[in-house]
Amino acid sequence: MFSSRDVGRAGRNVGHDEIAAILGCEILSGSRPPGSRMPGAPELFERFGASRVLMREVTKTLVAKGMISAKARVGTQVLPPDQWNWFDPDVLAWRARVGLDASFVRHLGQMRRAVEPAIAALAATERTPDHLDRMRAALAAMRLAGINRHAFAKADLEFHVAVAIASGNPMFRSFASVIEIALGALFSLSSPDRPDAIAENVARHAAIADAIERGDAEAAAAAMLAVIHMGSDYMTGSGNHELSSVRPQEAVKTA
Question: Distance between CA 131 and CA 134 in Å, rounded?
Answer without folding.
Answer: 5
